[in-house]
Amino acid sequence: MATSNTVTMEIYPNLTPSVEIASSPAGTVCPGTDKVFTAVPTNGGAAPAYEWFVDGVSVGTGSTLSGVYTNGQIVSCTMTSTQPCVMPAIVDANPITVSTFTVTPVSISDNGGILTSSSAFGNQWYEQTSGVIVGAIGNTFTPMTDGIYYVVVTDANGCTSTSNVIEYFVESISENVGDVLSVFPNPAKDNLNITFGKAIHDGTLRIENAIGELVLEKTINQDAGSTLNINFKPYAPGSYIITVRDAKTEVRTQIVHEK
Description:
This protein is an all-beta fold.
C-alpha cells in the first residue's frame, strides 16, 4: 500500500476588522492648533491601507493625518485590511468632529496718547521691533518712546488673540515737559510734588504703574507756578508714568517710587 505525502494546512479564523481614530491633542483645542490623527487598527493585517477624508473629501493616505482644522470639520478614515479571512475587508472608522474654542478678537486704540486694549484681562504688550515689553500686562499702556505697538491676549483656555498695530509717535503729542511741569523729589517716597510751569485748565492728571495699570486719575485746575501735592505712600515701589493734559497741552514724565 502506497502512502502519499502530507500537507500541512493553516486555517485562519474568520475575523472582523475595525479601525478607530485617535487625535492629539485630544478634545477641544485653540484655533490654529496643529492636530495629528492616527488610525488604530484591529485585525488590519501586516500592511493595512488607509484613506483619510475631511468633510467627505479625500485628503491623504497613510496611518496618520496632520494639519490645522477649523471648528466643525469632520475627519474620517477608511481602512483596507490585509489580514486573511476578514469580512468585510474595507471598514470605516467613526468620524471625529473637530472642536475649537471661541476666541474673542482683540483690538487696541490710541486714546489721547494712551494705548487701550479691548480686553480687560490677559494682556501682554509688545513693540514690533524690540518684542515683549516686560511687565506691561494691563489693558492700557502709555509708551515713552516711538514705535509700533500691539497686544496679545491670552484667555482662560490658553488661546491667544493678536491685536492690530498702532504706530506711535511721542513727539507728536508732547511738548517740552520742563516748560509745563516739574516733579520732585524723584525718586519719591511718601509725597510727590508737581509744580506747574504753565496753567492747566479743566485738565486731567493720570498716574500709571509699570504694567500700565491706572493708579490715579483726577481732574485738575492749576495756575502757573502752583504746586500739587500727591500722597505716594500707598503705592508699591517701582516706576510710574505721569500724564498731564488739557485742551492745549499734553506731557508725560516718568518717576520712581521708593520705600
